[in-house]
Design goal:
The complex is a heterodimer of chains A (298) and B (130).
Chain A: E1 6-9, H1 12-30, E2 41-45, E3 56-61, E4 67-72, E5 78-79, E6 81-82, E7 86-93, E8 97-98, E9 121-123, E10 129-130, E11 134-138, H2 143-147, H3 156-183, H4 189-207, E12 215-219, E13 229-234, E14 245-247, E15 253-254, E16 261-269, E17 275-283, E18 292-297
Helix pairs in contact in A: 3-4
Chain B: E1 7-11, H1 15-27, E2 31-35, H2 38-48, E3 52-55, H3 64-72, H4 77-80, E4 84-88, H5 93-100, E5 106-109, H6 115-128
Parallel strand pairs in B: 1-2, 1-3, 3-4, 4-5
The chains are: A alpha+beta (298), B alpha/beta (130).
């Protein structure tokens, strides 16, 4: 990064589409047509089903053993990595817990699907974020897990029941309305309208892009990706505190996790450490800065 | 100071994370003590008079908030003014405001922290201390 005056900004229109995508993805998740795992991976206790923290999760190259990334899960057990092509393995480490789980060996466990058990996996070009759900087996009492229940508690069976109920009602509604429409020779307007809404939702599931979990830094004029920029999230209420940081890669992508809220996104040159621009960003319940950030130089 | 080395106390109930941090800071040349709960932490702070304390908030026996209150209200000025860096997964405004009112030197949310950046900041604070 060089130049006299540099501004960074979040373009309104391109991010309006992102916001719309977020809302529609939430609708599809609610209707059980998409899975929440696309947003984050969760490390959880295989017996109590509660999320685990702090778990050190490492993404390691299968061939060389080199660590591509490592992170610590948040209070809700969430983690994730920005993918690169290659063959990988994930390691999860936490005191009083063992991985891989011997209790849960299936590919899904109620509200948790796409479970990971320590196998190698390949990532191709264009992969998004690596975040399978990971069960870990408890090895006795864990003080932290008990203490945390007052702050974060997953109602596993209630959520599972709700998920199944929504799915049953959704498909029952579709079958019922279709049957009414057919039996009345396609003359019932309410039934036809209902079926039409269903088809609209199905089309959404087919055509709506998956919610991305990474942000992108682009040059304002040429729209090419900019690498080597460090982003830090600040909050006006707590000056000097950094709520998250990430560095843009050669493809302009960065993976910046943070808790929901309003932040100041500060950009600085990774090599000099000099800050050159700030902009406001809002982090939603997805817990990542996934906007496109545009940088104007000059 | 102990043998010319600055003293650091790592207060963290998760043994794995505590050991990772303690080992890392030892490689930087600090004398590192570990505390797995709040009571051990308070005793160690009074005994060792560290140059800096790394404090988790959700810890057994005496929580991190109370550890901080005990330090700040201690009659010995050296102990009362001990630099404290909080490393916790708690992130609500309420929790941050509460520890900020007890004059902490920095606050890091574990899940959102680049550990290399964290080590650098702690080293910078230790360089300033004493």
């Amino acid at each position: 990064m060089s130049g006299k005056k540099i501004n960074i900004t979040v373009p309104v229109f391109s991010n309006l589409f992102l916001k719309l995508t977020v809302l529609l993805n939430r609708l599809l998740v609610l209707l059980q047509l998409r899975e929440r795992r696309r947003f984050w991976g969760v490390v959880y206790d295989s017996l109590s089903k509660q999320p685990l923290d702090p778990v050190k999760v490492s993404l390691v190259y299968a061939d060389t053993g080199k660590v591509e990334g490592a992170c610590i899960t948040d209070l809700e057990g969430r983690y994730g990595f920005l993918a690169r092509p290659g063959k990988f393995k994930i390691f999860a480490q936490r005191t009083n817990y063992i991985f891989p789980s011997k209790f849960i060996t299936a590919s899904s466990d109620g509200i948790y699907s796409h479970l990971y058990h320590g196998e190698f996996f390949n990532l191709s070009e264009g992969a998004d974020v690596v975040a399978p759900n990971i069960p870990m087996d408890p090895q006795g009492e864990d003080w932290n897990q008990h203490a945390k229940q007052g702050i974060v508690y997953i109602h596993f069976y209630f959520q599972l029941f709700f998920k199944m109920l929504v799915a049953v009602l959704f498909w029952f509604g579709f079958i019922y309305l279709s049957a009414v429409a057919v039996l009345q020779n396609f003359k019932s307007l309410p039934a036809l309208a209902g079926v039409g809404i269903y088809f609209f939702v199905f089309l959404l599931e087919l055509w709506l892009p998956k919610l991305r979990l990474f942000g992108v830094l682009l040059d304002g004029k040429g729209k090419w990706p900019i690498s080597g920029v460090k982003f830090e999230l600040l909050n006006r209420k707590f000056p000097g505190m950094i709520f998250g940081s990430a560095v843009s890669r050669e493809d302009g992508k960065f993976f910046l996790r943070a808790n929901p809220g309003q932040y100041i996104l500060q950009a600085s040159d990774i090599s000099t450490g000099k800050a050159f621009g700030k902009t406001f960003v809002r982090v939603g319940s997805e817990g990542v800065v996934n906007q496109t950030i545009v940088c104007y130089n000059g | 100071m102990n043998n010319g080395k600055k003293i650091l106390i790592v207060v963290e109930d998760d043994g794995m994370l505590r050991k990772i941090m303690a080992d890392k800071f030892k490689t930087f040349g600090y004398e590192v003590f570990q505390a797995e709960d709040g009571q051990v932490a308070v005793d160690a702070i009074l005994d060792k008079k560290p140059d800096l304390v790394l404090l988790d908030l959700l810890i057994p026996k005496v929580d991190g908030f109370l550890v901080l209150e005990k330090i700040r209200n201690y009659p010995d000025a050296k102990i009362a003014q001990t630099p404290v860096v909080v490393l916790s997964n708690l992130w609500s405004d309420k929790d941050i405001l509460r520890v900020k009112s007890l004059k902490i030197d920095d606050y890091f949310v574990k899940a959102n922290t680049d550990m290399n950046q964290f080590y650098e900041k702690v080293q910078a604070l230790l360089a300033k201390a004493g």
